[in-house]
Write a structure and sequence with these properties.
single chain; 160 residues; mainly alpha; two-stranded antiparallel sheet; 2 strands
């Protein structure tokens, strides 16, 4: 095996090939043939080097994916452990205590109240009246148009 610029060559013209060519082919034709053959072999070796490089990159990516998968399993186990501990340590609270906590948080800021209304439908039913307890209409036309719909919506929500 010969050596190219990037390490060992996979294919090269050996002595036996040179001997066979000397016996059957003239010097100019043999030189042209060997030059062409060397170029083809160089191209083949370059392609093999590229494929080897791509295989190494794929192996590295596979190693990363395998590592991520292991990390995800560890994270899932950690989350399960936290969930198990949290369900053991936090007792169920009565609804009136939960309502008082949510009401205090919702009255603190409209942003918090909006976020709380996204927690669940039950929490939304508790928090939405606090969000909409004050409604301002800009002009009489808006009032005449929207007020009936607001009352219908309030009625549908069970607030009236």
């Amino acid at each position: 095996m010969g050596f190219g610029r990037s390490g060992p060559r996979f294919f090269s013209v050996n002595q036996q090939t040179h001997t066979l060519l000397k016996e059957y082919i003239s010097v100019p034709l043999r030189t042209a043939f060997l030059t062409n053959l060397e170029q083809c072999l160089d191209l083949t070796n370059t392609r093999i080097d590229l494929m080897t490089s791509q295989i190494e990159k794929l192996q590295a990516a596979l190693h990363s994916v395998t590592q991520w998968k292991e990390d995800a399993k560890e994270l899932a186990a950690t989350i399960e452990g936290i969930q198990a501990k949290s369900s053991e340590s936090i007792p169920d609270l009565p609804n009136d205590i939960i309502w008082n906590i949510l009401r205090a948080a919702a009255e603190e800021s409209k942003t918090t109240a909006s976020m709380l209304s996204l927690v669940s439908k039950e929490v939304q039913r508790w928090v939405d009246p606090l969000l909409f307890r004050h409604i301002c209409f800009v002009n009489d036309e808006t009032t005449n148009t929207l007020l009936p719909e607001v009352f219908i919506w309030f009625a549908d929500m069970g607030w009236l």
